[in-house]
Amino acid sequence: MIMTRTLVFFDTSVLFSALYSSKGGSYVLIEHVKKGIIQGITSQTVIDELSTNIIKIDRVSQTNINNLIINNHFIVCNDIPYEDIHPWIGKVEEKDIHVLVGALSTNCEYLVTLDKKHLHTPKIQSLCKEMRVVTPKELLAMIK
Question: Is the pTM of this model over 0.90?
Answer without folding.
Answer: yes
